[in-house]
Write a structure and sequence with these properties.
3 helices; 87% helix; mainly alpha; 180 residues; transmembrane
Length: 180
């Protein structure tokens, strides 16, 4: 640091003894106050980050606007096309986000509906299997009745054939006995 009689480099103070005249001292004090005020203002500006950020943003916007204007002057159709493309992209992105936000509940409802359909399909499948099993059981009983009926018919036929055979044998025996 510098001492009380020394001034920092770049200061425009005369490098010499301090004045002894009261008017000169007042002038020196006034000059020091002004210098201190400027230093405080500069430090305040450096420490005021939001204001500096705002100024930087304003400068950036101005530079961007100037660049856009220069580019437009150089090639208007390309700038218009680029602007339209950028605007279309932004509108498309916003529409996509809005649709996605709106369709999230719809997708959840669709998933629940799909689960319900799967449960209904499983129940229908089970019902079909049960009907098929019942039909097979009925068909099995019917087949058993048909087989039983067939066996009974065959048994009656055999009995009829036996009776006829016995009757023929008896008739033949009577004829033979009467011829003797």
């Amino acid at each position: 640091m510098t001492g009380p009689d020394e001034h920092p480099p770049g200061d425009h103070q005369p490098a010499g003894p301090r004045p002894t005249d009261p008017d000169a001292i007042r002038a020196d004090i006034e000059q020091t106050r002004e210098q201190l005020g400027r230093t405080v203002d500069e430090l305040t500006h450096r420490l005021d980050v939001p204001t500096r950020a705002k100024e930087s943003a304003i400068e950036s916007i101005a530079r961007t606007r100037d660049t856009a204007v220069e580019t437009y002057r150089e090639s208007p159709p390309a700038v218009i096309g680029g602007g339209v493309a950028a605007l279309t992209a932004v509108v498309g992105l916003l529409a996509w986000r809005r649709r996605r936000r709106r369709t999230a509940p719809a997708r959840a409802a669709a998933a629940q509906a799909q689960q319900r359909r799967a449960v209904v399909q499983q129940a229908a499948s089970r019902a079909r299997e049960e009907r098929a099993a019942a039909h097979a059981a009925v068909a099995g009983r019917s087949a058993a009745r048909r087989r039983a009926a067939g066996r009974a018919l065959a048994s009656r036929r055999r009995a009829t054939v036996r009776r006829r055979t016995v009757a023929r044998v008896a008739a033949t025996a009577r004829r033979t006995a009467s011829h003797r």
